[in-house]
Amino acid sequence: MAEKLRIIPLGGLNEIGKNLTVLEYGKDIIIIDCGLGFPEDDMYGVDLVIADTSYLEKNRQKIRGMFLTHGHEDHIGGIPYAMRQFNCPIHATRLTAGIVKLKLEEHELSDTVKLFTHEAGEVVKAGCFTVEFIHVNHSIADAVAFAIKTPVGTVIFTGDFKIDPTAEDGMMDLTRLGELGREGVLALLCDSTNVERQGYTPSERIVAEGFDRQFAGCNNRIIVTTFASNAFRLQSLITVAHKYGRKVAVTGRSMENILKVSTELGYLKIPNGTLVDINAIRTLPKNKIVIVSTGSQGENMSALYRMAFSGHRQVEIQAGDRVIISASAIPGNEKAVSRIINELYRKGADVVCDKLADLHVSGHACQEELKLIHALVKPRFFIPVHGEQRHLQAHSRLAQTMGMDPKNIFISDIGRVLELTRTTCKWNGTVPAGKVLVDGTGVGDVGSVVLRDRKHLAQDGMLVVVVNLSGEDGSIISGPDIITRGFVYVKESENLMEELRVIAAHAIDKCLANGSRDWSVLKANIKSDLSGYLFKTTKRNPMILPVIMEI
Fold first, then answer.
1. Are strands 90-93 and 63-67 parallel, antiparallel or unpaired?
2. Could you tell me if residue 339 is left (phi over 0), alpha (psi between -120 and 50 degrees) or otherwise beta?
3. CA-CA distances (angstroms) from residue 339 to 15, 24, 298, 312, 329?
4. What is the reported pLDDT for 324?
5. If 0-12 CB within 10 Å is exposed, 13-18 middle and 19+ buried, where does residue 70 land?
6. Backbone φ and ψ of 8, nearest 5°
7. What phi, psi does 150 have (nearest 5°)?
8. Is 12:386 a contact under the CB 8 Å cutoff?
9. Exposed, middle or buried by CB within 10 Å (0-12, 13-18, 19+), for 102?
10. Which among 147, 123, 121, 155 has a CA at the least distance from the CA of 135?
11. Contact (CB, 8 A) for 45 and 62
């Protein structure tokens, strides 16, 4: 029986971020991207979310390489965690490789992981797969799509992209996509992020013009926050700052790292004397300084957040500061961004974040650009990727308007296996997939049970009942003592605390009277009696933890 190409998404479908796709044929596997996601509101204490890679760990001997489309966190952020589970060669363009190298060094993995650098146009052999790097435009330099030649046909994976004819690094290589389309493409996996937007995505050059308007005639200090990875926007900022005689200071770890890598690799051209240390800004006039900062998504530890809430060592927002937010809120981050903006206004800052100011453009293709890709590639089968369900469905409808047969469109989900031959495409089961939560140094040790407990504690607090019992007859020696956290303020609820002590003592006496010395029964009775009383009197349901000690 002939082998089939298996396409298995382990992330990036029905969610934003955590992008990871597996291509498998016979004894060979390649991985496209390995990103992370950010925790949802009910994931209390969780730092990051990564893909479940247990299928790859089980089949590590088949893995021939990991190929990265670009250097954004939602496409590379999970690499250090994955490399601890299975080590494989990583293939990326120069800037992407530079960013990944920093990550590997930070996690002390740079000596064990092989990282290969390639240019757009290069072709890499990985087992039975041949992967071609194709230049695309995005909001980070060195982004690529992949044309993957397999034994059953060519698969094109666009990665994140838009079509920008005036891009700093040249327009997306549409010619090559057209050539591949004429040769014949088995399947297209295409970015769906902006499929709901009509028209075309504006060029990054519009933002440079927007910066120029904001800098012109401004005599106050300017603070700009944007995505750290957008080297093109950093270049625009530096160019405009130099034009108006301003020095540029950078704050925020990720911004500093990107600046370092981009400068070393030649992606940023910084005029001599323009860049200054953040500690030097106190000696400069306000109209001669620009501060470039992280924090465009309202992150609690970001530089802009610390400036706004007076926690930054070198910079504090002052009345009259012009704060330019050159980014749009990622879905789910709107509240955090709004909170920072409100605090900036409270401090008297002049906040500029209106879309009409042309201070941000997306890095993802809108409908007309997506139509152009479909027209050029002309795939036999289409698999929309990178988006929530509404994005995937909208992209399916768009493909149908281009003449694609609905029977040849497959809206997948993480863990679902799609098997392709030269002429067919069918579902065939699932593999383990899902979310692995990273909390501090712990990876995967916070599961649904722990999250449920954290949610319970966050909503209702907890109540601890401590009692000492005699080892001889089981009688109460001391207690019950009641300790609460996040439930009520004890000093103002002494009557309730006393009533809870009485109920707990009665529950213990009732068990002992029945001849039971089983601690699990004692604890269950205490919890049952207390929870019933508390819900009846307070309409609250705190977590109750009986602690029984025998003396």
1. parallel
2. alpha
3. 24, 45, 8, 17, 12
4. 92
5. buried
6. -130, 105
7. -120, 170
8. yes
9. middle
10. 121
11. no
Residue linked to tokens 């270049």: 235
Average pLDDT over residues 181-187: 96
Q: How far is CA 32 from CA 43, 157, 214, 226, 449, in A?
A: 27, 9, 40, 27, 31
Distance of alpha carbon 30 from alpha carbon 123, whole angstroms: 14
Residue type, 69: T
DSSP 8-state symbol, 405:
-
Where are the strands (E) in 138-243, listed by range? 144-150, 153-157, 185-191, 222-226
The amino acid sitting at 421 is T
Residue 420: the pLDDT is 96
- Dihedral angle sign, alpha carbons of residues 54, 55, 56, 58: positive
425 vs 359 pLDDT, higher one: 425
The pLDDT tens digits of the residues spanning 248-275 come to 999 888 888 888 898 988 888 898 889 9
One-letter amino acid identity for 384? P
Q: Are strands 5-11 and 20-25 parallel, antiparallel or unpaired?
A: antiparallel
Q: What is the pTM of this model?
A: 0.83
**What average pLDDT does this structure show over 180-209?**
94
For 192-316, strand residue ranges (E) read: 222-226, 247-251, 275-276, 289-293
Structure-token pair, residue 361: 């453009």
- Reported as a single tens digit per residue, the pLDDT across 39-64 is 776 666 667 788 989 999 999 999 99
Please list the active-site residues.
Answer: 191, 364
With beta carbons less than 8 A apart as the criterion, state whether 256 and 230 touch: no
The C-alpha atoms of residue 50 and residue 53 are separated, in whole angstroms, by 9
